[in-house]
Structure formats: C-alpha cells, structure tokens
Amino acid sequence: MAAATSSVDSQTGSGLSSNLRFLLRGLIVAAVVAFIMSLGNVNIGAIGQGLAYGLAGVTVYLTFRVLGFVDLTVDGAFPIGAATCAVLIVGGQSPEVAILAAFVTGALTGLATALIDIIFKIEGLLASIIVITGAYTVTLHIMGGKSNVPLLGEETLISRYSRDFRSWLVEQFGDQMRRQSTNLLEIILFGAIVIFVLVILYWFLRSEIGLAIRATGKNPQMVRATGLNHNLMIALGLMAANGLAGVSGALVAQQFGFADVSLGFGLIVRGLAAVIIGEVLLRPRSVGQFLVAATAGMLIFDISRAWIFSALDLPTTDIQFVSALVVLTALGAPTLYGRWKSYQQRHSN
Fold it and tell me: Of the four listed, 26, 42, 202, 344, which is most buried by Cβ atoms within 10 Å?
C-alpha cells in the first residue's frame, strides 16, 4: 500500500514537473516573440489572426497525431464553416448560432471523408482530396452561388462590442488606444473562445470515447480486439477535428468581414507547420500540452509572417510566398538541426 502511494505521488510530481517545464518554455517563447514583435514593429493584429486560425492547427494535430489519419479535409471544412457563418449572420442569426452551425457543417465535411474511407475502402489521403474537391462546390451553394459574402454592416462578435469597448479603452488609457481597440477586442474574444474550446476538447479526449479515439490512432488492432468499433472512432475523430476547422473558419470570416470560397487554400500546410513549430519550441508531453502547443504554433506562424512583411516592407501580393518560406523553415529546421547534431557527434569522436 505504501509502495502504491509512493508510486502515485511520484507520478503526480512528474506531471507537475512536466507542466512546470512546459509553462516555463511557454513564457520564454512568449517573451522572445514579444521582443521580436516590438523590434519589428509588428501590429498586434497578428495575434488576433493567429488565434482565429488557432483551432485549425488543433484540427491538424488531431487528425495527424491523434488519429494517425492523413487528412486534408481541413482545406474544405474551413471555408464551409466560414460560408455557413456568414450566410447565417446575413440572414439575421446571432454570431453564436452561426459559429455552432459552422461547427456542424465542418463536422459533416469530416464525416464525408470518413464515410468514403470506410465504405469504399479508399485511403484517407485520396478520400480527403475527393471531399475538398467537392467542398468547393458545396461552399458556393451555401453562399448562393457567389464566391464572396460580405459582412459589412452586419452584427458580428466584433462589431457587437466594438463601439463600447473602444469608448472604454479611450476613457481608461487615452485616445492613442483608439487605433488598436479592434485588435485588442479580437484578441480578448477569440482568446476566450479558443480557451473554452480547448478546455472542452481536453475533457472530451480524456473521456471514455476520447480515450478510445486516441487508442484508435495508436493501436487500431488493440481497439478491434477490445470490441470497440474502429471505424466509428475514426468517424467521430474526423468529425470533431473538422468541426473545429469550421469554427476557425467562422472566426476568420468575422475578423475579415467576409467569407470567401478560397479561404481554406493551403491551410493544411499551414496547420502542419503550426503543429511542428509548437512541438519543437514547447516540447509538449501530455494531450493538454499538445493542444496548447498546436494553437501556440499557429500564433507564432502568423506573427513570424507579419514580422517578415514588416522587416522587408513587402507588398501584400507576396503573402503566399512568405507563407511558403515560413512553412519551409518550420518543417525543415528540425531536420537540419538533427543533421548538425549528427555531424558534431561524428567529428567529436
């Protein structure tokens, strides 16, 4: 009994130590990023944009890392979520209802990929390519055949509180804060939504169903042996993941003030970069840490891109090229570092 108690205490202490190290690394990374932003005169709007896209990074983490499913559906679920949100807001629905509906349509996009994989035995990569190809047309139909739905003059989460928040900010801190009021409001609102979603997702992944989904990605043979429905777990996992992509699309649509059929272009690569950036810099060890790391990775991605634009004074036409460079750096840096360490070891011996 004493030995068991000692073992539990040891595990608890190890968990606390891991969380403390993760927190310290997070604080160091945050300090470095803040210094780079101030040095490069990067607008804090990059933080709000990173938070809006953050859940898309979590989507990629869930599909690639948790499920072990090569899934590109995020490129289709994201614009479908944005289109759903924009159309409902224009139709008079509240932003909250529109975000929930975006989750549902994103989840249905993930379900489509799962069904193609399960029913037709088509590999996940090809199944998701089929879905995102069809999702383009679905998005157009949701938007009534238009490629763009503007939200100018409509009540969004941001516009609802914008005037009162700006007045309060100017009253408390002076007129110089007027220009940053919208950016600060986006950070507060999107930050609260992301934290709420991550808490719910953390609880879900530690529930019986969530543990079964995680086990499906780690050891599908064991899951089948225990009598669990492997295909059902894959379907639930893809629905949950791409539902988050739909929510992310809804937030981005409200931030940009429009939904566009091409909003999800290249998002899968961006999400992969976010996951790797978070893992390399924060070195997460638990599922909760991985969720935070994926979100933080997307934040760092957007801030890095904004810093490059500011430092080099590039035109907005170069945005995709800069994004490609940031992705290449994120994906290639760990490999180059590993080769450098191997080179040092060989020559030290």
Answer: 42
| Predicted pLDDT at 318 | 82
Tokens standing for 249?
Answer: 């699309």
Domain with 56 in it: 43-264
Q: Which two tokens stand for residue 338?
A: 């590993």
Q: Say whether 159 sits in a helix, a strand or coil.
A: helix
Which residues 6+ apart lie within 8 Å of 338 measured at CB? none
Helices (H) and strands (E) in the chain, counts: 13, 2
Task: Count up the domains in the chain and report the number.
Answer: 1
Here the tokens at position 6 are 């000692």
Mean pLDDT of 192-213: 95
Q: What is the amino acid identity at position 262?
A: S
Q: Is residue 295 part of a domain?
A: no
Mean pLDDT, residues 271-300 taken together: 94
Largest separation between any pair of C-alpha atoms in the chain:
70
- Is 287 inside any structural domain? no
Asked if the structure places residue 107 within a domain, the reply is yes
Long-range contacts made by residues 320-329, C-beta under 8 angstroms, separation at least 24?
320/266, 323/266, 323/270, 326/273, 326/301, 327/269, 327/270, 327/272, 327/273
Q: Which DSSP letter does residue 149 get? A: E
* Whole-number Cα distances in Å, 314 to 124, 319, 320: 38, 8, 12
User: For residue 192, is pLDDT > 60?
Assistant: yes
Say yes or no to pLDDT of 1 above 70: no
Q: 215 is written with which tokens?
A: 């086990």
pLDDT value of residue 201: 97
> Which residues lie below 8 Å from residue 301, measured CB to CB, with a gap of 6+?
50, 270, 273, 274, 277, 326, 330
Angle between helices 287-312 and 181-205 (to 10 degrees): 150
Residue 119 lies in a domain: yes
Asked if the model's pLDDT at residue 51 lies above 70, the reply is yes
Q: What letter does residue 66 receive in the DSSP assignment?
A: I
